[in-house]
Amino acid sequence: MRYVYFMLFAFGIVRIGSAQIILTEVMFNPIGPENSDEFVEIYNLGNQAVDLSGWQIGDSSGFDFLSDVDGGGLILHAGQYGLILDPDYFANGSTTYDSLISPEALLLTIDGSTLGSGGLSNSTPETIMLIDAALDTVQQYRYTINNDAGHSDEKRVLSEDNSPGNWGNSLFINGTPGFTNSISPVPVDAAITRLVLLASSFIAGSSIPFRFTLKNAGVNPLNKITWSTFLDDNRNGVPESNEIVETFSGTISLPPGDSLDMEGEFPDVPYGEISFGISLTVTNDAHPENNVAIVTHFIDDPSRVNVVINEIMFEPQPDFEEWVELYNKGAEAINLRYLRFADSRDTVAIRQDDDWLAPSGFIVLGGDTALIDHYSVAPEKVRIIRGFPTLNNGTDDLRLIGPTGFVYDRVPYTSDWYGRETEPGVSLEKINPFFNGQFKDNWAASVAPGGSTPGEQNSVFVEVLSSPSRLEIQPNPFSPDFDGREDFTVIRYSLNVETAFINIRIYDLRGRLIRFLADSLPAAHQGQVVWDGRDDQGRMARIGAYICLFEALNPEKRVLNKLKKTIILVKQQ
């Protein structure tokens, strides 16, 4: 039976026997059906049982009497939770909370059709009111609506009032029906509230420093903890034995409510999108679910990403499409999701989802599917990009950029790179994918009958024999702090020719030239060059990772070999 009261709430008197029954949880936005899965939880805070016969619950505009479930009665014992479920939970056979409800909880329902007047609103906060048999207002709480679906409003400290600061969103999906609230203080509760990576660059093989914040969310002091660093390879959020990097144990003194910042590092990090994790182990911790924190970051390795710009159609026939062809000259597949394409004005992501470019594979980038009809190219080799940059006919600066900002490849072309007079519809082709794309001499106008070769080997391709040339850098890392230890690094090279000219450049991770160590320097088939850590202006380079690009050229200044390796500059402690 449903009743509506107007003046009762303002003048209701709370009796001593009733005051021990409190509201503790409100599920107004369940994941399951709204008409069956809403619930309200109450708790007997006193030291004596209370008979709930004649009690009502509602949303300030509509009220229903409490009813028992399956003859369970209406006696709520001291220290017992009562769970008030919508009648349709039982009528419609819902099982959402069956495995979650404590067997010690008293199951209750109402004699009406739904909680409140038409159910609990998800869009407008409503006030939940509990009325005893004497028609006194025992409890009232106005819930918030900032919850994700399936997360209830929970009371923090049961013995305190129902002010907004003493309530919050449940940490658990489906709430905690019949159990201690997830946000209520417990004797032992160590929590990680923040994890941040502190590196200025994220390069494979380097060490990534981090800081995490440990909070004592329990009511007892924290004295001893064990924590582990791990790489969550399978992305399940759980530190498994084969994923753990290091484990540490220590004694601390952390009072309730206080936080402590702790630091460390992940050594020798691998390439790719890596999930860095911290896991706590604390004896008798009531909430181990907040003992893990994970941060995902892309770790770059420019030496492994060998995708290059291989052909450019920047001046097509009228009403035809512009495009750029990429080629993977490396030995491993590269995920295009981690690459961005840029010209002198615009930058666009190539793919939003995983899309792997196999070794020796071609991909054609464009902005309109019509290019499939206008050019002889297999559709599976085409990737249409919304907002694809408009390529300039006279001059432009094209780049492939990684997630960390490193420029994997760059082509600052001008129209005279064609090397001859051409008509619209002729592409600019690279002579060999392994040549440096920044130099005019490594490009030429297509000689294909159709004017271009999208998705295929270029018409001007020149074969280059593989080379066993090697590049070694030692020590690496090195620390140019002039303490007499590892102040310099030696770049040793070995070529498969007797003589050559060499270029050695040092770049930072944004592709900026830091030091030009050798500029067309005559060299024998073996040699070495020393870097003291300074840039071309004589200033000491910053701590971090750098790329050493080595080129061997023939007398005509054509590139014979190109090698690159990462150099780590550190500071000794």
Folded structure, characterized:
The structure is a single chain. This protein is mainly β and 573 residues long. It folds into four domains: 2-169, Lamin Tail domain (Immunoglobulin-like, Sandwich), CATH 2.60.40.1260; 190-299, Sandwich (Immunoglobulin-like), CATH 2.60.40.10; 307-445, Immunoglobulin-like; 470-569, Immunoglobulin-like (Sandwich). 3% of the residues lie in helices and 40% in strands. The protein has four helices and 37 strands. Strands 1, 2, 3, 5, 6, 8, 9, 10, 11, 12 and 13 form an eleven-stranded mixed beta sheet that branches. Strands 28-27-22-21-31-32 form a six-stranded mixed beta sheet, with no helix packed on it. Strands 33, 34, 35, 36 and 37 form a five-stranded antiparallel beta sheet that branches. It is elongated. The N and C termini lie far apart (76 Å). Residues 1-16 have low confidence and may be disordered.
Task: State the gist of this model.
By secondary structure, this protein is an all-beta fold. Helix 4 links the parallel strand 27 (362-366) and strand 28.
